[in-house]
Amino acid sequence: MGGKVRIIGIDPGLRNCGWGIVDSEANRLHFVACGTIKPPTDLSLAERLAALYRGIREIVELYGPAEAAVEETFVNAGARSALQLGQARGVALMTPATMGLPVGEYAANLVKKTVVGNGHAEKQQVQLMVKMLLPTADFKGADAADALAIAICHAHHRALKARLSA
User: Fold this and answer.
1) How far is CA 20 from the centre of its chain?
2) Which residue blocks in 15-141 are alpha helix, DSSP H?
3) Considering 23, 67, 71, 146, which one is annotated as catalytic?
4) Which of 24, 62, 50 has its CA nearest to residue 150?
5) Nearest alpha-carbon partner for 32 in 125, 154, 148
6) Catalytic (active site) residue 143
7) 71 is an active site residue
8) Each residue of 97-123: pLDDT tens digit?
9) Which of the following is catalytic: 23, 42, 122, 143?
10) Which member of 11, 23, 67, 146 is catalytic?
């Protein structure tokens, strides 16, 4: 697991799907790119999921990450919202996997604990720490910042696994 690895972090969502890409080498992280995929809300569910698929696929093709990380979503909303978010999460997991990337999954609390040191950190704390860890990061919202945090979490945990197995 040595050398440089490019990681895409994905914060799944049907309205706003954040993505962030970092290069991880040894204990250094470098910001590559980030953004938010926003499928048009006037489309059917199937069309929105297809737009999400195309968006993720395009980003993977453009930036060439070697690994992907997706947040496990915690939903405190109604059953319909949970089901739709689960479908968006399925697309976020399936797309990089079908392109040959290994995909890690991380609970939101683990992402926050890894990046901030507190599993119950507020979104603003996550954004502040992402900016400190990736000073050149230019994210325009919480979804992209969360995606970068997921990529950071994956970089940390893959390095930890490599050290433990050595």
Assistant:
1) 6
2) 45-63, 79-98, 108-115, 123-133
3) 71
4) 24
5) 148
6) yes
7) yes
8) 999 999 999 999 999 999 999 888 998
9) 143
10) 11
